[in-house]
Structures are given as structure tokens and as C-alpha cells.
From TrEMBL:
PANTHER family: DYNACTIN SUBUNIT 5. The keyword Cytoplasm applies. InterPro entries: DCTN5, Trimer_LpxA-like_sf. GO terms for cellular component: dynactin complex. SUPFAM superfamilies: Trimeric LpxA-like enzymes. It is found in: Cytoplasm, Cytoskeleton. The gene is dctn5. CDD domains: LbH_Dynactin_5. Coiled coil: none annotated. Gene3D superfamilies: Hexapeptide repeat proteins. It comes from Dicentrarchus labrax. This is Dynactin subunit 5.
């Protein structure tokens, strides 16, 4: 997947010393509990809920417009407990997503209008297609593509190495 160039108005974004770009129109609740490791972009109208638990985002991530990132929770007899959310490097979250996962690996692409259920684990190098709803506690294996409502395994991505170049083919699982 080739990412397109995104142009922005510098006056609408705050740039940190580590190269993070955060929209002035986004909401970061509990900012002392949010760690952006560098060169991460948070676009307008996004909400990151650091007031519930720690949120850690890796390098070179993009969170597009109107997405909500919040830590997962678990109900107990005495109340509710929130757990930290870890997002790896090179993660791309499209518009209008709700992410309530426990962990997202590196090189993950989450499509438009997706809902990632509570305590889901997305391993490295996976893709969630547009309009997918992952049920709570779903584990997405590496090199897989999930789609649907509820989200299920669509196909696996095979990566072949030959002569120093990578090419990928898809195996459909029916």
C-alpha cells in the first residue's frame, strides 16, 4: 500500500521536539499519561484518553481525523479496571475509528470506520479493512487481513524474499 502525501496548515498543528505533530483541534485527556515516541501525527478531532490508563504510541504513526483511542477495560465485581494501551511503530489508523485494544503491533493498518473491541491484540504486519468491527478479545495474527462485522480472517499475506526484493501474494481462505 502506498501512502499519499498529506498537506497540512502549520498553524493548526503543534510540533514537539521529537517531531510529533498534534492538531490543535484534537483532544488529549490526561496528557501526562500519553507517550508519543516521535514523528507521530495526530490529526483534527481525534480523542486520546490518557486519563483512563497509559497510552504509548510508537514512532512514525498516523492517527487520522475523528478517531478515538482509549485504553481497554475489564469489569470486576468491585468495579472496572483500565489497562495500558501499547501501539507499535509505523501504525496507520484511518478516519472515524474507535480503538479499544490492549496492544497493536508494528506495521499495522486499520481502515476507515473500524471498531477495535476491548482488549484486542493486533500482532505485527496485519491489516484491518474498512468498516470492520472486531469483537472483544480478538487476536489478529501476523500477516493476516481481517474484514467484516464481526471481523474474521479474510486472507493471509505471504511474503517472499528473492534477489533482495520483497513481493507479496495473497492466499484466499474460504
Amino acid at each position: 500500500m502506498e501512502l499519499s502525501e498529506i498537506l497540512y496548515n502549520k498553524a493548526e498543528y503543534i510540533e514537539t521536539a521529537s517531531g510529533n505533530k498534534v492538531s490543535r483541534q484534537s483532544v488529549l485527556c490526561g496528557s501526562q499519561n500519553i507517550v508519543l515516541n516521535g514523528k507521530t501525527i495526530v490529526m483534527n478531532d481525534c480523542i486520546i484518553r490518557g486519563d483512563l490508563a497509559n497510552v504509548r504510541v510508537g514512532r512514525h504513526c498516523v492517527v487520522k481525523s475523528r478517531s478515538v483511542i482509549r485504553p481497554p477495560f475489564k469489569k470486576f465485581s468491585k468495579g472496572v479496571a483500565f489497562f495500558p494501551l501499547h501501539i507499535g511503530d509505523h501504525v496507520f489508523i484511518e478516519e472515524d475509528c474507535v480503538v479499544n485494544a490492549a496492544q497493536i503491533g508494528s506495521y499495522v493498518h486499520i481502515g476507515k470506520n473500524c471498531v477495535i473491541g476491548r482488549r484486542c491484540v493486533l500482532k505485527d504486519c496485519c491489516k484491518i479493512l474498512d468498516n470492520t468491527v472486531l469483537p472483544p478479545e480478538t487476536v489478529v495474527p501476523p500477516f493476516t487481513v481481517f474484514s467484516g462485522c464481526p471481523g474474521c480472517w479474510l486472507y493471509i499475506i505471504h511474503v517472499h524474499r528473492s534477489l533482495g526484493q520483497q513481493s507479496s501474494t495473497h492466499s484466499l481462505l474460504f
